[in-house]
Design brief:
With 222 residues, this protein is mainly alpha-helical. It has helices at 11-24, 36-42, 47-59, 78-102, 106-120, 125-142, 146-167, 172-188, 192-221, and strands at residues 63-66, 70-73. A hairpin with a 3-residue loop joins strand 1 (63-66) and strand 2 (70-73).
């Protein structure tokens, strides 16, 4: 078990963050049992903070409680994964409508440039996934809608897990960077409709790639 700084904030929050990173990165697979005693020993603490961390992960949708098995990494069905992605796509389409009506924010665009710069230099899929999420969250913030922001945030960790799966496919990060560069350029030029069309295609391709390269492969192996 890699080291974790437990000196600041609540132990349970730190432990939850550490375990969530492992789930998003695919180091803990769906169905993996989270044993309180094991993690308490690994993090050098009692079971209480681990129990609270598991509760937090359950709220985030990364873990589920199964009778007679306990807490395990949540398994999302193919249908549930498509639902999550389509909800995300619909929310971002609504985000673009709000941006068309309200315009962009210079400071937020600068933050998107900074994030994109980091994305170009990131090789690890799980860290790229987090940056990608931050980039898209900037657009959500520019929508000016707290309702959209709160709804988008609730997709949270499960969405990151799915996106990490997509970015692990060969060539997808490179394609993602090119499209994010173009999207940012269009937003800066206030080419709203072109930006909306690009975002729609970009998001639809994620679903297409997962269908063709993840679930199709899985069905061929069975």
């Amino acid at each position: 078990m890699s080291s974790i700084d437990l000196s600041n904030n609540a132990l349970s929050q730190k432990i939850a963050e550490h375990i969530s990173k492992k789930i998003i990165a695919g180091q803990l697979q769906p169905g993996h049992k989270l044993n309180e005693a094991f993690y308490a020993e690994a993090y050098g603490t009692s079971r209480a903070p681990v129990r609270e961390a598991i509760f937090l992960l359950t709220v985030d949708g990364l873990v589920e409680k199964i009778p007679r098995r306990g807490a395990v990494v949540k398994t999302y069905t193919e249908s549930e994964i498509y639902d999550l992605l389509e909800i995300r796509n619909n929310l971002e389409a609504l985000v673009m409508k709000r941006i068309m009506a309200n315009g962009t924010d210079t400071n937020t665009l600068e933050e998107m440039k900074r994030i994109l710069s980091e994305m170009k230099n990131m090789e690890r899929e799980e860290e790229y996934t987090q940056l990608n999420h931050s980039f898209h969250m900037c657009m959500v913030i520019m929508s000016g809608s707290e309702v959209i922001k709160e709804t988008y945030t609730r997709l949270g960790q499960p969405l990151l897990t799915i996106q990490n799966l997509s970015f692990s496919l060969k060539g997808n990060i490179e394609k993602s960077i090119r499209e994010h560069e173009e999207l940012l350029k269009l937003l800066e030029q206030q080419e709203w409709h072109k930006a909306a069309d690009l975002l729609e295609t970009h998001n639809a391709d994620v679903i297409k790639n997962i269908k063709e390269n993840v679930f199709k492969t899985s069905s061929n192996e069975t």
